[in-house]
Design goal:
The chain is mainly beta. The protein contains one helix and eight strands; from the N terminus they run αββββββββ. Helices cover 13% and strands 53% of the residues. It has an eight-stranded antiparallel sheet with strand order 1-2-3-4-5-6-7-8.
Length: 176
């Protein structure tokens, strides 16, 4: 599996390095992971454990419906999740001084999240994210590069701050 975004290049006259296809996929994965994290935080964080079923508007339009189970282990500082996120035209953007952390995308599809979310620094997040059909469209990187993957299979593993796996059958990854 790939462990990091491959952003780099000659840069030429520009001070911003080039972003190749592996880099754009990495930024798209960051956008997807950050959107899922935001949906979790605004819908489920601080809620009672057990069965979950919440819908929320996405930051710039569209909706996100999250359902499944989440249980907490206060002694370990972890939350174990088996959740499905149904994203419908979920528009999410982020501006960052790091060009490989900037995006403006719309997400449509269903993705499952299974594993452990670390709540305390002494624990490590360990998740599997899987979708048989995710559409990611918009712009990634800064300055923006047009990006569109339609009905794409996604299989990712998150270990701490490393997210890697496949996007549309291609190896992809990013450091969160």
């Amino acid at each position: 599996m790939v462990a990091a975004v491959a952003c780099g290049g000659s840069g030429g006259a520009s001070s911003t390095p080039a972003c190749d296809p592996q880099c754009t996929d990495g930024v798209a994965l960051l956008a997807l992971r950050d959107a899922i994290k935001l949906v979790y935080n605004v819908t489920l964080q601080g809620q009672p454990v057990g069965a979950q079923d919440k819908t929320t508007p996405c930051p710039q339009g569209g909706t996100a419906h999250v359902h499944g189970t989440a249980t907490s282990n206060a002694d370990q500082g972890t939350t174990t999740v088996m959740l499905t996120y149904n994203l419908s035209q979920c528009h999410y953007s982020q501006v960052d001084s790091d060009p490989s952390h900037a995006f403006d995308v719309t997400l449509t599809g269903s993705i499952t999240e299974q594993g452990i979310i670390a709540v305390q620094p002494s624990s490590t997040t360990s998740l599997v994210l899987q979708s048989s059909s995710m559409t990611i469209a918009g712009q990634v990187y800064s300055p923006g590069i047009d990006y569109k993957e339609t009905a794409c299979a996604v299989l990712l593993a998150q270990d701490g701050s490393n997210l890697s796996g496949t996007l549309c059958g291609r190896p992809a990854g990013v450091t969160l």
